Each structure stands twice: as C-alpha cells, then as structure tokens.
Amino acid sequence: MNLTFAELAIHYKTALLEDVLPFWQTHSLDEQQGGYFTCLDRQGQVYDTDKFIWLQNRQVWTFAMLYNQLASQTDWLNIASHGAQFLAKHGRDPEGNWYFALNRAGEPLVQPYNIFSDCFAAMAFSQFAVASQQDWANAIALQAYDNVLRRQQNPKGRYNKLYPGTRPLKALAVPMILANLSLEMAPLLEPAQLDQVLDQTVQEVMTDFLDVQRGLLYEAVAPNGSHVDCFEGRLINPGHGIEAMWFLMDIGQRRRDQSLIQQAVEIVLNILDFSWDKEYGGLFYFLDAEGHPPQQLEWDQKLWWVHLETLVALAMGYRLTGREDCWQWYQKVHAYSWSHFADPEYGEWFGYLHRGGQAHLSLKGGKWKGCFHVPRALYLCWQQFEKLSASQDRP
User: Fold this and answer.
1) Using CA atoms, how far apart are residues 59 and 29, in angstroms rounded to an integer?
2) Torsions phi, psi of 213, nearest 5?
3) For residue 171, what are the contacts with CB-CB under 8 A and spacing of at least 6?
4) Which of these, 273, 300, 166, lies nearest to 228 by C-alpha position?
5) What is the pTM of this model?
6) pLDDT for 20-75, tens place per residue?
7) DSSP states of 289-302
8) Which of 13, 40, 33 is nearest to 371 (CA)?
9) Same domain for 257 and 316?
10) How many CB atoms lie within 10 A of CB 318?
11) 132 and 210 share a domain?
C-alpha cells in the first residue's frame, strides 16, 4: 500500500461522508413511528421492523457525535433527535432500566436483561445533550450512567441464569465499556468522579484480565483475576481485546501516560499474532487460549466490527508510538478489510464473512449490526491520518 497519510485521510473521509452515512440516512429512518430500522438487506431494504435498543442508541450517538465533532449540519441533528425522541418515550421500563428490544411501535419485546442497553443510552444521550442543549437529554444520560455504575458488579441482575457461587466469573466487557463510556460522559461528570472510574477500569483491565506472560486479554476471569479452566475461562475474543486497548490509548492520551499507550499497543500486536488466520487472512471471531475447540460455532467467521476496531487501534497506535510493526500490521489489516467487507456496488460494509472471505450474510444491518462501528471507525481513522499527514507525508 503506497498511499500517503493525506490520501488515507481522504479515503476514510470519502467513505464516511459519501457512502456509509448516506446509506443510513436514506434507508433507516422510520418516518411513521419514530426511531430507526436497522434490519436492512444488501440494498438497504427493510426486512424486519423490530427495534433493538443498542442499535437505536448507537445511531443517535453517531449522528450527534458527528454534529458535535465535524459540522453543525441540521440534518444530522434532526436524525439524532428522531431517535432520541423515540427512545425517551419508549426505551425504559418503569424503574428506568433500558429494554433490549421493542417492536416497531415502541412496545417492549425483550426485558432489560443487562446493563449494556444503559451503557449505549448514556453514550447516546450525553452526545445528544451537547448537540441539542436540552436539559432533559442530559438528565437521561446521567440516569443511564448511574444505572451502569450501580449494576456493574451484577450486570444481569435478576436475569442472570447462572447458578450462584459455583463458578463465579466476571467479564472484560464491563470494565472495557466503562472506560470508553466514562470518556464519552466527561462533559457531564465531575472531574473527581471521572478520574476515579478511569483509574478503576484501567487497573481492572490491565491487572485482572491481562495475562502478562502471554500478553493476551481473557474474556472472563475469576473475581480475583485468576484463570478458570472452562469454555468461558479460556475464551479469547480478539475484537474485544483490541477495542479495549484503543480505549486505553485514549485514556493514555488524556493523561499523557506514554507507558500505558505503549503497553496497550504491545497487547494489540500480541493479540494480532495470536488471532490472525494464517491460511485465509483476517481475524478469527473467537479462540480458545489453549487451542481447544471453542464452544462458539461461529468462531472462525470474520466480522466487520473486529476488523474495524483493529484498524482504529493500529492507526492510533502508530500515530502515538511510530512503531514500524504497528504500521506493517495496519497495512495488512487495511488490505484485507477493504477488499472483503466494503461493498462498492450498494454501499456500506458486509458484516459477516465465511472463514475463506466470502460473504456469509448479505445484510448491511440486523439485530447486532447498525449505524455505529463502520461510521465510528471511518471517522476515527480519518482523524488519525489527518493528524499524521500534518506531521509527515509518508510512513
């Protein structure tokens, strides 16, 4: 790949503004009943009208964030408001916990069975509060964030189906998302509270979930951070680990902590060495740390978000450290991702590939894929390469 940093910045900017955002602006708005359609086929046609709270909130966040960070475009704010109004009316149960799924009209389908709906609500409404200057949005963001903090030790609450006490495990997903969420919430939080949460999340991720000898992040560990020899205890989720590390790089930038940045980049490179498919290319979805068969039957699929988070981590890591191995990996992941996931015919990205690289499903959106990972990664990579191009022309 012989593109300059300036050319890479233009590549990501163009993909975001002329391909991905127009796809969602054209196809996803439910003009009759509010909110967004996320189940879109390859051409953008709606094939299911249920509304999933993660994806509804994530789309509010995307358009509010771009309004705040890029340009005060009225249509972006209107799209964010379209979802925020629907969610404020329908998204929560009487106790203020966020559902997982609604039908098209906003009636609840799936109970608020974990805190991640609340996480994405806090992200969405914190950005929307800044964009709209609405006090009610600010209040919703803070209430959702308080839910997350209150329930972080027991994220599923009464919906947890595990028998208590026999094999207690805690998940990487909780502290990693708290790291990113708390940075998102920074304008609404007291500095002391923000610092306390960031200290806690960095400590937990880098102490309990990191296997220092192997340089890998485990998806679940015992409450004291020790490994547990079972399916869940041996699980490596490369995308989660890499995404968590760019969250920590972000914290490192905020705190001017070069040691944390260097450690995070090293872990990204270790995960890539462990999880890259040497036969077909791309990153495996799940792996067993000891090489046993994973319990997830989809373990060898190649997923859009895993590769996008890796592009962000490598672009950010290279900008912050200048490591040549980071740049070599970036070029490899860039070549694979853009040649396999991007759809030049109908726009946006495929989400799910067979191990060999063929599209497993032709959808552009569904229950888990919406207007979030692709535009966020395109925006962040654009910003990394724009900063790099300002300091040097080429790698």
Assistant:
1) 10
2) -65, -40
3) 155, 219, 220
4) 166
5) 0.97
6) 999 999 999 999 999 999 999 999 999 999 999 999 999 999 999 999 999 889 99
7) TTSPPPS-TTTT-E
8) 40
9) yes
10) 23
11) no
